[in-house]
Specification:
Layout: H1 4-23, H2 31-38, H3 42-53, H4 57-75, H5 80-86, H6 92-103, H7 107-111, H8 115-125, H9 129-136, E1 145-149, E2 152-160, H10 163-178, E3 190-198, E4 204-214, E5 227-231, E6 234-242, H11 248-261, E7 271-275, E8 288-294
Antiparallel strand pairs: 1-6, 2-4, 2-5, 3-4, 3-7, 6-8, 7-8
Length: 296
């Protein structure tokens, strides 16, 4: 079984590869190039990728190509052939074959799909098989407490993209800078801060910050891409997640469903993850994370 340090490193490699794929979907991507982007050998890369996602690199590439094609399919009058070429397929027939393999629908059928059904399909395809497995086994009690948090001053680093892809790299870069500073105190909180924008088609854009709380903004120049910011005071529904950080996304999904089903009125503002122990020293199944969703 890999060590805690190895798991973090593997997820970093995985995130680098996934980011490369998303940025080059219109190109032919081979295994050697992907492995190089992740910093691993091809053999090691395939093993790590499959272990952490429950799909092969090429299944992931196909899923991302189909996802990327769904917005223009629903949103404009581009031809099937043009959409095929824009997502790296050599012909409309190759694209249609891949689309059917992933969705059991032809592109033309999806184009005429009902809006809500199309949105649900996009959201379902956005989730990796591994995350779906974790969702089924999630150790997560739907028994929130309502808490009020005071205003927090923070230092943060940020990026935009899928959570499982960007969170490890955002935290790695953030901790590299913050560990050299004297900002960390006994009462410092380590927070993940998430804002999500969803298009009508169901495609989501995830803005993610890795942050620590500080006592005051000294105005000192910060290293690298770090910035000062603040989280306003507010009321939150607080849930507790036990176990792997891979469960964060499914946990948020279940928490939002619970709040909607029980008529909680959600408030504007970011959701928070408050990490209560250190993943460098804590076994993955013993990690504890507060999940905080703003409510009125």
């Amino acid at each position: 079984m890999p060590s805690i340090k190895q798991i973090a490193f593997h997820r970093m490699q995985l995130g680098k590869a996934q980011k490369y794929i998303r940025e080059n979907l219109h190109e032919h991507i081979d295994l050697t190039t992907l492995a190089r982007a992740s910093g691993a050998s091809p053999y090691h890369f395939v093993r790590v990728f499959s272990a952490y996602t429950s799909e092969t690199p090429f299944e992931f590439i196909r899923r991302q190509k189909i996802l990327a094609s769904m917005e223009p399919l629903r949103g404009d009058d581009s031809s099937i052939t043009d959409i095929a070429f824009s997502t790296g397929y050599s012909s409309s027939s190759a694209y249609t074959k891949a689309f059917k393999a992933v969705t059991n629908l032809a592109p033309k059928e999806f184009r005429n799909f009902g809006k809500e059904n199309a949105r649900k399909l996009v959201q379902d395809l956005s989730i990796s098989p591994k995350v779906k497995e974790i969702e089924m086994e999630l150790d997560f009690e739907l028994n929130p407490s309502i808490v009020t948090r005071p205003q927090s001053i923070i230092i943060y680093n940020e990026d935009c993209g899928p959570f499982e892809e960007i969170a490890p790299s955002v935290w790695e870069q953030f901790l590299k800078y913050i560990s050299k500073s004297d900002f960390i105190k006994d009462d410092t909180e380590f927070l993940g801060i998430s804002d999500i924008e969803e298009s009508e088609s169901g495609h989501q854009k995830h803005f993610y910050k890795a942050a620590v709380t500080i006592n005051n903004n000294s105005g000192d120049t910060l290293a690298g891409s770090l910035k000062y910011g603040e989280i306003p005071s507010g009321k939150y529904a607080k849930f507790i997640l036990n176990g792997s950080y891979l469960g964060l996304w499914p946990a948020f999904k279940k928490a939002f469903a619970y709040l909607n089903e029980n008529n909680f009125e959600l408030n504007n503002g970011p959701c928070l993850e408050n990490y209560l122990n250190d993943p460098k020293y804590t076994p993955e199944d013993e990690l504890i994370t507060e999940i905080l969703i703003p409510v009125k």
